[in-house]
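Table S2 (continued). Query chain:
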Amino acid sequence: MSELPILTIITLLPLISGIIIAGLGENQKLARRLALFSGFTSLALAVALWRSFNPASAELQFVEKHEWIPTLGVNYFVAVDGLGLLMVLLTALITPMAMLATWRVEKSPSLFFSLMLFLQAGLFGAFTALNFFHWFVFWELSLIPAFFLVRIWGGIQRGPAATQFFVYTMVGSVAMLLAFLAIFLATGKFDFPELAAMAHNGSLNEALAGKLSWHLFGMEFTARQMTLVVFGGVLLGFAVKVPLMPFHTWLPATYAEAPSGVTMLLTGVMSKMGVYGFL
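Corresponding output:
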């Protein structure tokens, strides 16, 4: 297990399965069965991950790190700690249950279940990635299928509900992207553990104030002010996802209009992405 790229496998499995199922067209029975098989296979892999996890260690486990775009500080960097493992297990458990809750969907079931698997892949990636660029790809990957699942298979008011959900979450994502680009311009780093170490020793604040103070509204910011500006952008991105007041108004309509299985994923896992990000 230690040499097997288990986190890559568990992320790619629903992604590849979703692509295959999307190509099945009108073969509804096979699409349903293959989607459910993929869901339970991911659950089995997550259980194997949990059984191999060492709870006595405070270090990141199942680490996979490879250079991707070294000139931009982009690495393929995945690993889990106890919190990440919990989120992976939660995603793997709820997804097949959500599929069973919408088992009899009649409108384009192959597309429906492929989108659910794409959503699961995005969630797995967001809970295991430790490089911002890599993580942000999966963060957004979870947004796109969720939008279409509500927009196409939702209730009577699905159009406005899906649009509101998309606009809110996209605004939050843009704010968070700008904040992390500011961090990268100041530090040249995207890896979360390295940025966390810089935050602990105070060098992150100094880098933000020293390298970006003259690039924001033509004003010179103190280290504390610069940190608060960047924190505000990240806060907005996570606050929309949780959601916290006053960024929660998309939630009632979206949850009410989404199909039951999609609502299970939205409430059971996607809402935890923001809390996970905060922690």
